[in-house]
């Protein structure tokens, strides 16, 4: 049972606060990104669990700054941040208003100068994502949403609602229902945990999403023969490509609630859906903490030209197809 009530005005206050946090963090992330080839660069990297799981002094600096603001201005709210959990905090999700933050999503991109880097700021209440702000300060793209208020793309100096563009983008027509996975542009990621028992089923799944022919084995899964597979290296920005209507599908096993919390509400407000990556029926708390995500884009613009039941049927069709080709991989929460 939901234990925390809130008003539309509360959500607006939280949204404006999250935008302010993104405005503070942007220049710091950009400064780190632009100074990566200076002689001090060797001090940039701190390895986490393995050589592909990177964190930089900027991840830690940005999270500290954002958290200090939340502690000061959002009394009684909880906080879950990638770097705080990495440093040993428990990070349990409860019904309390909880800010779920990835200070730099796409840290590997940040280190290599690939401009798909973003701060991701989500807020859950009663374990449901209700506010999301994702900001890529390198490309100056600000994605924002609050529950029931729509999703917008703007730049940091625009008012998202009046000057921004409503999502999904229409170029020039609203996104139409996708007849099958074979017509889809799909995003997926290898992730940072490259142990054989994790990477092998993921690679097999990506293979089956894109392959024309099933594997030559008796229990081979079906294939999707998608138009293409893309890996941006940032869960948040993969989701924003789905929210805009540029990617049709995003599938990933292994990312965490800070990678996706803001993305879930922005995608939903853009008419997309986010479900378990491998076929479980889950509620939002299980989805957020389950580490397996399947995201499908809107099948209609904001003009209501396609009936909601036709949109839902088209999205379900794609979800079922993806579930039938990917491996059922379950990852631990350590
Ligand atoms: C990364 C994600 C990426 C995923 C990695 C990792 P980080 O986040 O956004 O898409 O594949 O496993 O979680 O570490 O850059 O914040």
Automatic annotation (TrEMBL):
One GO BP annotation of this record: inositol metabolic process
SUPFAM superfamilies in the cross-refs: Carbohydrate phosphatase
EC number(s) recorded for this UniProt protein: 3.1.3.25
Pathways involved: Polyol metabolism; myo-inositol biosynthesis; myo-inositol from D-glucose 6-phosphate: step 2/2
Residue stretches in coiled coil: none
Positions of Mg(2+) binding: 82, 102, 104-105, 259
Assigned protein family: Belongs to the inositol monophosphatase superfamily.
Name of the protein in question: Inositol-1-monophosphatase
Organism: Actinomortierella ambigua
């Amino acid at each position: 049972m939901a234990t925390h009530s809130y008003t539309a005005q509360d959500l607006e206050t939280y949204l404006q606060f999250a935008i302010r946090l993104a405005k503070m963090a942007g220049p710091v992330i950009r400064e780190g990104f632009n100074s990566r080839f200076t002689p001090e660069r060797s001090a940039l990297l701190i390895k986490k669990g393995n050589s592909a799981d990177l964190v930089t002094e900027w991840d830690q600096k940005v999270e500290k700054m954002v958290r200090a603001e939340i502690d000061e201005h959002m009394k009684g709210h909880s906080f879950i941040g990638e770097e705080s959990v990495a440093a040993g905090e428990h990070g349990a999700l409860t019904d309390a208003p909880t800010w779920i933050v990835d200070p730099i999503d796409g840290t590997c991109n940040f280190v290599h100068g690939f401009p798909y880097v973003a701060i991701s700021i989500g807020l859950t209440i009663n374990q449901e994502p209700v506010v999301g702000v994702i900001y890529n300060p390198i490309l100056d793209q600000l994605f924002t949403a609050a529950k029931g208020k729509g999703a917008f793309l703007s730049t940091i100096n625009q008012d998202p609602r009046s000057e921004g563009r409503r999502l999904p983008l229409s170029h020039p027509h609203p996104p139409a229902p996708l007849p099958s996975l074979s017509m889809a542009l799909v995003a997926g990621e290898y992730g940072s945990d490259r142990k054989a028992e994790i990477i092998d089923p993921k690679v097999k799944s990506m293979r089956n999403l894109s392959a024309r022919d099933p594997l030559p084995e008796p229990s081979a899964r079906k294939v999707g023969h998608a138009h293409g597979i893309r890996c941006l290296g940032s869960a948040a920005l993969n989701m924003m490509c789905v929210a805009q209507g540029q990617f049709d599908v995003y599938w990933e096993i292994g990312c965490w609630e800070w990678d996706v919390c803001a993305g879930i509400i922005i995608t939903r407000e853009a008419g997309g859906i986010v479900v378990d990556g491998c076929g479980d029926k889950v509620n939002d708390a299980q989805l957020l903490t389950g580490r397996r995500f399947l995201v499908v884009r809107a099948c209609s613009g904001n003009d209501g030209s396609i009936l909601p039941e036709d949109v839902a049927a088209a999205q379900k069709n794609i979800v079922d197809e993806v579930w039938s080709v990917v491996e059922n991989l379950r990852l631990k929460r350590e």
